[in-house]
Amino acid sequence: MSTLPRAVDLGVIGCRVCHLVSHDTLGDDDSALACPRCGSRLHRRKPASYSRTWALLIAAFLMYIPANLLPIMRTASLNDIDDNTILSGVVELWVKGSPDLAVIVFTASILVPMLKFLVLSTLLLSCHRGSDWARLQRARLYRLVEFIGYWSMLDVFVVALLTALVRFSVLSRVEPLPGVIFFGLTVVLTMLASMSFDPRLIWDGRDIDD
């Protein structure tokens, strides 16, 4: 367990918008202080972090199910029409000689969302229990989730790129299908869940969520 003091122990508070550090004069109210630089309301912790993050994470998981079951892309040529889900699209890319692209799509569409579900669930459960287990490693996991979140829309970009490129061909066509919408919703909801989670709760060792 780290013995370094937290900001709340030092009587300071940081603005989540402009990152200015100010003296904590909230007292027991936690509703009256505004940032002296940008005017945003200051909170010791993100309000309702647990409930908001859980709600967004569960909604993202519900969207992820049809995102994998429904086709995301239709490829049509003179003699063939083929609808592909995420996984079947990965297999087709591999079989047709694009293993690099198949690995990228598999990583962005399967591994990354599952990793985000697992990491955020672990962080929520451990913080809610006030666990002091591997706090530094959990903080690093959260930073990893934030970093990979920027690349989560890669699968949607691949479909959009293929659609744009193949439209130049008279003999073939690529169309996005409803699975892309559900996958896009999954990505957006997991990003919002990551933003709603307050990593400072990792270091609290107790639930101070308001």
Automatic annotation (TrEMBL):
<feature type="transmembrane region" description="Helical">
    <location>
        <begin position="54"/>
        <end position="73"/>
    </location>
</feature>
<keyword id="KW-0812">Transmembrane</keyword>
<keyword id="KW-0997">Cell inner membrane</keyword>
<feature type="transmembrane region" description="Helical">
    <location>
        <begin position="176"/>
        <end position="197"/>
    </location>
</feature>
<keyword id="KW-1133">Transmembrane helix</keyword>
<feature type="transmembrane region" description="Helical">
    <location>
        <begin position="147"/>
        <end position="170"/>
    </location>
</feature>
<dbReference type="InterPro" id="IPR007498">
    <property type="entry name" value="PqiA-like"/>
</dbReference>
<dbReference type="InterPro" id="IPR051800">
    <property type="entry name" value="PqiA-PqiB_transport"/>
</dbReference>
<keyword id="KW-1003">Cell membrane</keyword>
<keyword id="KW-0472">Membrane</keyword>
<feature type="transmembrane region" description="Helical">
    <location>
        <begin position="101"/>
        <end position="126"/>
    </location>
</feature>
<protein>
    <submittedName>
        <fullName>Paraquat-inducible protein A</fullName>
    </submittedName>
</protein>
<dbReference type="Pfam" id="PF04403">
    <property type="entry name" value="PqiA"/>
</dbReference>
